[in-house]
């Protein structure tokens, strides 16, 4: 439809010689050999970003917080009407090397202080670090509860985790995606605020992909290293081992997480996932 042609297509997966999914370099070779046109998701995102506006600014107001004064910007999605908030500290007019956190909504962790995850502690740490930096942005994306599966499904997954599954296995047993979050709204909010290059506060490399396609450059990563407790230890291990989250450098936090087997008591002061 974007090309002005009939909306007809064929969907298939091209595999490499070893049976694995062919990656972009191999796909380019295949397309050249077969005289096929090829575009990437990033190409489509760039096209839509230039032509489609997915959010609108609804309101803005200064808010004093426990970390310091911020200015809150409420953005409304033009796709589903969900309202998101960006907390801005200081002057970010040049848009360069801005300290940024894109935080997914977690009602249980952010509001009620659930010890099952590190979400609430990451939110507080990000706000603290932005305040200390003197300037930065925290985008709070709603609709991301349970990595996109919703609150009810998240609680059902918790029951399965109590029966022995990890966070990935629980989602799969419920027939749900492991992570269905999409960061395009967050990227457009950042662009509207004037951010162009950022130091991204995250332990999740997949956020790079979700933001880069919208013309935002990631100049570096700032890890958010929060306390390891008896309640969240397995969750952090699963995010590291099965979802590619980064908790350290050479060992990716293996020693730090594992050494808490016998030392954690659930207190935030027991151990910190730093490496």
From TrEMBL:
- State any GO BP term from the record: riboflavin biosynthetic process
- Chain spans, region Disordered: 254-275
Required co-factor(s) are: Zn(2+)
What InterPro entries does the record tag this protein with? DHBP_synth_RibB-like_a/b_dom, DHBP_synthase_RibB, GTP_cyclohydro_II, RibA, RibA-like_sf
Q: Where is the composition biased (Polar residues)?
A: 258-275
Which Gene3D superfamilies does this UniProt record tie to the protein?
DHBP synthase, GTP cyclohydrolase II
The protein's annotated catalytic reaction(s) are: GTP + 4 H2O = 2,5-diamino-6-hydroxy-4-(5-phosphoribosylamino)-pyrimidine + formate + 2 phosphate + 3 H(+)
Q: Which GO terms describe its molecular function?
A: 3,4-dihydroxy-2-butanone-4-phosphate synthase activity; GTP binding; GTP cyclohydrolase II activity; metal ion binding
GTP cyclohydrolase II domain residues are: 60-223
Q: Is Transferase given among the entry's keywords? A: no
The keyword Zinc belongs to this UniProt entry's keyword annotation: yes
Gene Ontology cellular-component annotations: chloroplast
Q: In which pathway does it act?
A: Cofactor biosynthesis; riboflavin biosynthesis; 2-hydroxy-3-oxobutyl phosphate from D-ribulose 5-phosphate: step 1/1; Cofactor biosynthesis; riboflavin biosynthesis; 5-amino-6-(D-ribitylamino)uracil from GTP: step 1/4
The positions making up the signal sequence are none
Keywords (A to Z) from UniProt:
GTP-binding, Hydrolase, Metal-binding, Nucleotide-binding, Riboflavin biosynthesis, Zinc
Family per similarity comment: In the N-terminal section; belongs to the DHBP synthase family.
Q: Which HAMAP family match?
A: RibA
Entry protein name:
GTP CYCLOHYDROLASE II-RELATED
What is the native source organism of this protein? Salix koriyanagi
């Amino acid at each position: 439809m974007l090309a002005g042609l009939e909306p007809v297509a064929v969907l298939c997966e091209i595999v490499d010689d070893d049976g694995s999914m062919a990656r972009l370099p191999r796909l380019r070779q295949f397309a050249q050999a077969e005289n096929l046109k090829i575009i990437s998701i990033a190409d489509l995102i760039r096209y839509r970003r230039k032509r489609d506006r997915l959010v609108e600014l609804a309101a803005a107001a200064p808010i004093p917080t426990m970390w310091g004064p911020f200015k809150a910007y409420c953005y409304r999605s033009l796709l589903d009407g969900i309202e998101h908030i960006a907390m801005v500290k200081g002057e970010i007019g040049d848009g360069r090397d801005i300290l940024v956190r894109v935080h997914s909504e977690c009602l249980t962790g952010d509001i009620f202080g659930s010890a099952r995850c590190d979400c609430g502690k990451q939110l507080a740490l990000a706000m603290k670090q932005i305040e200390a930096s003197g300037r930065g942005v925290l985008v709070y994306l709603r609709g991301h509860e349970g990595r996109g599966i919703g609150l009810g499904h998240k609680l059902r997954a918790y029951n399965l985790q109590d029966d022995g599954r990890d966070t990935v296995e629980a989602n799969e047993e419920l027939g749900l995606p492991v992570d269905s979050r999409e960061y395009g709204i967050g990227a457009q909010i950042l662009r509207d605020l004037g951010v162009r290059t950022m130091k991204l506060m995250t332990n999740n490399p997949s956020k790079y992909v979700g933001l880069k396609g919208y013309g935002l450059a990631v100049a570096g990563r700032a890890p958010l290293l929060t306390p390891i407790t008896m309640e969240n230890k397995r969750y952090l291990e699963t995010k590291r081992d099965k979802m590619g989250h980064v908790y350290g450098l050479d060992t990716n936090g293996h020693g730090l997480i594992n050494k808490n087997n016998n030392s954690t008591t659930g207190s935030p002061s027991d151990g910190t996932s730093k490496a």
